[in-house]
Predict the 3D structure of the following.
Amino acid sequence: SQAEWEQLLTNCSAFLFYGMERFLSHVLLDWLVAMNIPKCRLVILLDLVRSQQSYQRIANSDFHKSCLRIALERPTETAMLLSLTGVGSVLAVQWYTSLEENAERLETLFENLLRFGKTTGQTVHALQK
């Protein structure tokens, strides 16, 4: 529920979304832009995974949205919206991907951030290789 999303985002210093399609297709845009979440220093969005089922669900959902609203759900716009709510840094994929590729990204993220203690910037650099 939206209340659960709000509680998670306002009570954490880092938030990881690992899911299908676009992050903002799961969260109400009006609700997100009204939030103030300065305690959340890092949001990691491992979204944009597409399957036939998820594509059909998102296509049905997008049918009822304006072009402007759909544009606001793109990765760059999502990062800007999260930044405006107070999030310190946003790490996000830019293009649609597979479950396997996102699982590899997640493993690399955890390994670099938690195991090796690298900074977010160093971790992003490792992901780009």
Observations:
- Residues 35 and 85 are 6 Å apart (CA to CA).
- The chain has a mean pLDDT of 91.
- Strands lie at 14-20, 42-49, 89-92.
